[in-house]
């Protein structure tokens, strides 16, 4: 607008009245000013590229960085209009692999299994640097080690990986996984299940463990990573597909620049980030979200050089472990399963 005014001033220098009218914000000047400001905003909104990212589960603090990147305008700064969606019946992996969504949230286990079955998923960031999941039991069940699983009832979701992990850590203590009673409880509420049907289950401490603290129902938590380096895998991760990488690498770079900013904000401002998640998903429990975020934020990056960074040995170790236990039909081509190439430099 200032450049337009200077040009107008040069043209009508002989007519002071018109100059004053233009600069004073009169009727004609005001209309011109509004048009000049509105048009770029309108044009900018038209230029934003619609992009879908699909979650692996209902929204929780694993996903906070995505909601921060949207709310704080980091995606818009990259020219992206990002929508965050819940997974369909086939899961986030199927939606990303098919191209229905270019980005999604998954776990290393699912990416590994998908890759060995010819599904072209690629992990482009580790949301959390170390595995925060493990087997949890109410204190009164007296489960202090994997050997204490014997004679107890375990509630799971029916995956072969569950029994393989449990056997792996029980074997270290000479315990027998066949002495564990396995029950498929699906997505039943943990706190209801341990009062009624089971003694322990596999949880993510950042959510269910923190909820137990808030309820005043303390747990014995056995993190699987504490029993084997091979079980310290990435869960969750952000994924895309090979086609998106090959056809639109700039989109992947832009998405990851904004997402990285979102998680960095959550690392540095956990309470504010929690409130952003709550604003987007108001049905979540505020106390749980805030407490969970404070616990999880420092674990996003942890000891990595930057948020999202993935190590080859983590992918190799876990895929070797899965293959050794018959969970994979063939070894993983590790170098095609993940990449750090789209993470912004520090």
UniProtKB/TrEMBL annotation:
Domain of life where this protein originates: Bacteria
Domain SsuA/THI5-like: 60-273
Record flagged with keyword Chloroplast: no
Secretion signal, residue range per the UniProt entry: 1-27
Signal as UniProt keyword: yes
Ranges that cross the membrane: none
InterPro entries reported in the protein's UniProt record: NMT1/THI5, SsuA/THI5
SUPFAM superfamilies with a match to the protein in the record: Periplasmic binding protein-like II
Pfam family, one: NMT1
Key words of the record: Signal
The name this protein goes by in its record: ABC transporter substrate-binding protein
């Amino acid at each position: 607008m200032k450049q337009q005014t200077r040009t107008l001033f040069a043209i009508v220098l002989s007519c002071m009245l018109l100059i004053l009218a233009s600069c004073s914000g009169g009727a004609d000047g005001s209309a011109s000013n509004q048009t000049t400001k509105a048009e770029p905003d309108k044009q900018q909104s038209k230029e934003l590229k619609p992009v879908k990212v699909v979650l692996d589960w209902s929204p929780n603090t694993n996903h906070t960085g995505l909601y921060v990147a949207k709310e704080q305008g980091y995606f818009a700064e990259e020219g992206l209009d990002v929508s965050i969606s819940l997974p369909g019946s086939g899961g986030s992996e199927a939606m990303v692999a098919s191209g229905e969504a270019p980005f999604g949230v998954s776990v290393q286990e699912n990416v590994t299994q998908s890759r060995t079955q010819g599904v072209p998923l690629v992990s482009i960031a580790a949301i959390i640097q170390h595995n925060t999941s493990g087997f949890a039991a109410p204190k009164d069940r007296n489960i202090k080690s994997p050997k204490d699983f014997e004679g107890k009832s375990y509630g799971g979701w029916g995956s072969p990986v569950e029994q393989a992990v449990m056997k792996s850590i029980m074997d270290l203590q000479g315990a027998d996984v066949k002495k564990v009673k396995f029950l498929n409880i699906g997505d039943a509420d943990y706190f209801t299940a341990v009062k009624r049907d089971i003694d322990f289950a596999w949880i993510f401490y950042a959510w269910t463990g923190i909820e137990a603290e808030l309820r005043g129902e303390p747990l014995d938590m056995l993190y699987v990573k504490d029993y084997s380096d091979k079980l310290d895998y990435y869960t969750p991760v952000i994924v895309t597909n090979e086609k998106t990488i090959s056809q639109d690498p700039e989109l992947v770079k832009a998405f990851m620049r904004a997402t990285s900013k979102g998680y960095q904000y959550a690392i540095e401002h956990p309470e504010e980030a929690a409130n952003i998640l709550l604003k987007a998903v108001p049905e979540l429990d505020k106390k749980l979200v805030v407490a969970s975020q404070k616990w999880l934020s420092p674990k996003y990056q942890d000891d990595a050089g930057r948020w999202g960074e993935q190590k080859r040995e983590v992918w190799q170790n876990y895929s070797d472990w899965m293959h050794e236990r018959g969970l994979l039909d063939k070894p993983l081509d590790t170098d095609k399963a993940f990449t750090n190439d789209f993470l912004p430099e520090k």
